Each structure stands twice: as C-alpha cells, then as structure tokens.
Amino acid sequence: MERKDGSIDSNSRHTPLRWGILGCGGIARRMAGAIASRENMRLEAVAARDKERAGAFASAHGAARHYGGYDGLLADDGVDAVYVATIHPAHYEAVRACLLAGKPVLCEKPLTMTAVQAEALFRLAEEKNLLLMEAMWSRYLPAWREAVSLAGAGELGKLKGVTADFSARFPFDPSHRLYDPAQGGGTLLDLGVYAIHLAFSAFGPDYCAAQAAGRLAPTGVDVFAALTLEYPGGGTAILTCAGDQAGPQEALLIGENGWISLPRFYQATEYTLHREGMPDEVRHFEKADGFAYELEEFRRLLHEGQTESAVVPHRDTLAALRLIEWGMRAIRCRHGLT
C-alpha cells in the first residue's frame, strides 16, 4: 500500500502495484500489456474524456474500473500510481492534476511541451514528495545501458562520438499526430528525443555548442532534423530524425580503438562490440517488453521513497526539452519563419 509520503510500505513488496492510466490510445494499450506481464503489478483503473472508450479499454485490458474524465481516477484510493498516456500538449495539465491529487506519476515522453512546464512539474513533485518519472523507456533497456557503460568505461579507449538516427516514413496526413501542431507534432519531440537521450546517456547533457538544420512539413512542424552537439572534452554527437524518409534507426558509440553498434537503438535487444584487431562480439539480451524495465524501476523507486530516477534524471529531461525547443526555433528560422 502507498504511504502518504508517496513511498510504498516495505511490508507490501509482494502486493501488486495498482496502476491507473489516463488516456486510452495506442501507447496506453502498449503500457497496459506491459503491466499485465508483471506479476507484481495490475491495471486497476483507466480514464478517458470519452467514458465509452474508457469502458472498452478497461474491458479489453482487465481494468476493474473506468472513468469518463480524470477526476474519478485521481480520487480513486485503489490507484497507487498513474501512467499519463495523453497527447503531448495535454501532459502538463494531466501530470499536474495527478500530483495535486497525491499520485506518483510515470508520464509518457516528452514529459511536457516546454522546459518551463517541466520545471514547474518537478518543483510541484518535490513539494509533494512524489515520484515523477518521464517514461523514456529506452534508457532502461539492458542492451542500451550496458553498451553505454562499456563505452564510458574505456572499453573503446576515449569515447569520441555518438551518432544516432531515428527516421521512419509516415505518409503526410495533416491529422496525424506527427504532423498536427495541435497534437504536439514534429519529429524532434516524437522521434529525435530518443537520439538526444542516447547522447546524454553517453556524454551527459552539458554540451558546449550545437547546430541544427532540418525540413518543415506543410503544417509547419519539423519533419526532418539534424543536430550536432559538441562537448567540452572533444566529444561530438550527430543526431538525426525524420518522418518523411526511411532510415537505419541505428546508433554508434565511437571510441579511439573501436565502436559499439546498436541496431534499432531505441528498442535495442542487442549490440555489437567492434575492436581493432579482434573479432566482433555480439551480445544478445532477453526480448522482454521494453516497457517492463521502466515499470520495475518505478516500483523500486516507490518502495525506496525516491522522487527521481538516476537513470533518467530530471536534469536530462529539462536539457532535452531545451535542446528540442531551440532546435525547432533554429529550423524555423532557417526557413524564414519565427
């Protein structure tokens, strides 16, 4: 059971963590499946603006209760924690409402549309002594974490560079979430954030210079973006994302004496270690639902009474949002827009 301070009673470690989900779209379905795969968790309640939709979701995923609107779920004493799965622009108000109701929150990425909004939520979470975690699930993957750890430990000599691409072709549709400004469209917010977090996990968020270029969709959102980050120690990150072209979706961690390749890096289940004069070494990992790792981290932090994850610290979330905001402005300026 949850304590008033937001932690979980250590005597209830074998009691399932009872989740509520706000929003009933595709990402919510993915999370509901991940929750169902964990013996120490269950989906207790769901909420959506449309009560019928919430009811259908609850029936499909075994939730005990459903609500039309969010107030009922936030007042539900049977819900220990909330996963926010709304569209990007609705994250801020949804997370704020959860925190004010005393609920710990796992919020789908990006946490908010702006760094200012994120700062306000982190302050509120600290005041309420509640766990607030951005669901940057890729950073919790064992393959990602081990590859970054090896690169940082000198396995390749000094780490010199990171490259990461997340490009996928989505036919243009102004109502699609990737292209619609009202739904928080744009590839940097939706796809590029993964590449940014890979750079931050390898080099940290304290880059000293940045460059940006890109293309805009007819709706005005960025449909391709290329970011170059330079770090004080000489490291460089080259990050690309796109919604109008196919891409390798691969990342490289490049050192003086070799490199590590991560195919489909944002959902990595393996990596290959390439070293000069040595055979390539492929390391495979269990192909579990990737969301399960962040769920287990969230549960662990709740048990310990923590309010922040060291895997995706608040400062990384803030730095990523600042970089995305700057990148979007820079791309628009290149096209003569403000």
Summarize the helix and strand pattern as letters: EHEHEHEHEHEHEHEEEEEEEHH
The helix content, as a percent range, equals: 25-40%
| Number of E strands | 14
Tell the overall outline: globular
User: Structural class of the helices, strands and pairings?
Assistant: alpha/beta
Continuous helix count: 9
Radius of gyration: 20 Å
N-to-C span: 50 Å
Which residues sit in consecutive blocks of at least 5 with pLDDT less than 50? 1-11
Mean pLDDT figure: 94
Strand order of the largest sheet: 8-9-10-7-11-12-13-14
Give the percentage of residues in beta strands.
15-25%
How many strands, what sense, and barrel or not for the largest sheet? Answer: 8 strands, mixed
Describe this entry's structure for a reader.
It is built from 9 helices and 14 strands. The N and C termini lie far apart (50 Å). Strands 8-9-10-7-11-12-13-14 form an 8-stranded mixed sheet, covered by helices on one side. Strands 3-2-1-4-5-6 form a 6-stranded parallel sheet, sandwiched between helices. The chain is α/β, with parallel strands linked by helices.
Summarize, please:
The chain is an alpha/beta fold and about 350 residues long. It has 9 helices and 14 strands.
List the helices and strands and how they pair.
Elements: E1 17-22, H1 26-36, E2 41-48, H2 51-61, E3 65-68, H3 71-74, E4 81-84, H4 91-100, E5 105-108, H5 115-128, E6 132-135, H6 142-152, E7 159-167, H7 187-203, E8 209-216, E9 222-230, E10 236-242, E11 251-255, E12 258-262, E13 270-275, E14 281-284, H8 291-304, H9 314-334
Parallel strand pairs: 1-2, 1-4, 2-3, 4-5, 5-6, 7-10
Antiparallel strand pairs: 7-11, 8-9, 9-10, 11-12, 12-13, 13-14
Helix pairs in contact: 4-5, 5-9, 6-7, 7-9
